[in-house]
Specification:
Strand 6 (234-237) and strand 7 (246-251) form a beta hairpin. Among the domains are: 44-98 and 108-120, Orthogonal Bundle (Arc Repressor Mutant, subunit A), CATH 1.10.10.10; 143-251, Alpha-Beta Complex (H-NOX domain), CATH 3.90.1520. It has helices spanning 44-60, 65-72, 76-88, 116-120, 126-158, 161-166, 171-184, 208-213, 216-229; strands at residues 63-64, 92-96, 110-114, 189-194, 197-202, 234-237, 246-251. It is an alpha+beta fold. The protein has a four-stranded antiparallel beta sheet. It is elongated, with a radius of gyration of 25 Å. The longest helix has 33 residues, at 126-158.
Length: 281
């Protein structure tokens, strides 16, 4: 069942923020060296030292802890503490160094390198590339090409989750199922009671920066929601427009007319959202 919240004056529940994400603060001895001067673990200097360790892994990895210590002029315990913290956060990984020549005594050297998550802390150009590609598509294919791409993307996004959603009975149960599917896709979604309806709150949008320039991505998503839920829906807010969450209102216990339309904040009004042959539940 959808969790019930206090109804607001406007009849809609307020989508709250996600709770504590469980950020782990590292503890240990103060960092001493040319880069890390003595400070409490987890402080500003400690953070700068960890950034330096991560950058070295990115630029020279895979490298051993001894190589990191030598390059940054840090003590071995300090380096290992930062490497352990990066591994715990999923930003670095360790592997055994390949041996050349006869095998000697002792354990094989352990080498460290950044994961994709670790490289993300230094930024990337995926959003810029996506925007450039869509601009090119719009220039050479026009609005229809953008709309077609947006529809194809949302179909791929939902994928096999469509069967899970359609198996649920009632708009409220389907909204919860949709929220579960979206959360699995990285959208941190929740379904919340809002009086005569349900609000679908997406607290994260991986394509928000792209959607800010190409709202067709949001429009195709909202249209798909209406088709899956079997009722008209209204997009109240989007992260792409600067709101704290993407919020979609789903009315319950209301008769759905064939040919009902979806209303979004951009004024987009697609064709009938109830596919022919499908009856509202």
């Amino acid at each position: 069942m959808v969790k019930r919240l206090t109804r607001t004056a406007g009849g809609f529940a307020v989508c709250g923020d996600i709770g504590n994400t469980g950020v782990v603060k590292s503890t240990g001895a103060p960092v001493v060296g040319a880069i890390g001067v003595p400070s409490q673990a987890g402080g500003p200097t400690d953070g700068r030292t960890r950034e330096a360790v991560a950058r070295l892994l990115m630029e020279q990895g895979p490298v051993t802890a001894a190589q990191v210590a030598a390059a940054l002029e840090l003590s071995s315990p300090a380096v290992r503490r930062h490497l352990d913290a990066l591994i715990a956060d999923g930003e670095a990984e360790v592997r055994q160094a390949s041996r050349r020549g006869p095998r000697g005594r002792g354990r094989p050297a352990r080498q460290y390198l950044l994961t994709d998550s670790g490289r993300a802390r230094f930024g990337h150009g995926y959003d810029d590339l996506a925007v450039a590609a869509l601009r090119y598509l719009a220039q050479h294919g026009g609005p229809d090409a953008i709309a077609g791409f947006a529809q194809s993307r949302v179909e791929e996004l939902l994928g096999d989750g469509v069967a899970q959603i359609e198996a649920a009975h009632g708009a409220d149960a389907r909204t919860e199922a949709l929220a579960t599917v979206l959360t699995a896709r990285g959208y941190a979604a929740q379904a919340r009671d809002a009086g005569l309806g349900v609000q679908l709150c997406q607290h994260h949008c991986p394509v928000a920066h792209v959607a800010a320039e190409f709202p067709a991505l949001c429009e195709a998503e909202t249209h798909a929601f209406a088709e899956l839920l079997g009722t008209h829906v209204q997009r109240l807010a989007t992260i792409a427009r600067g709101d704290s969450a993407c919020t979609t209102h789903v009315p319950l216990d209301l008769p759905v007319r064939r040919g009902a339309t979806t209303t979004t904040t951009s004024g987009f009004r697609p064709e009938a959202t109830i596919p022919r042959g499908r009856q509202p539940e």
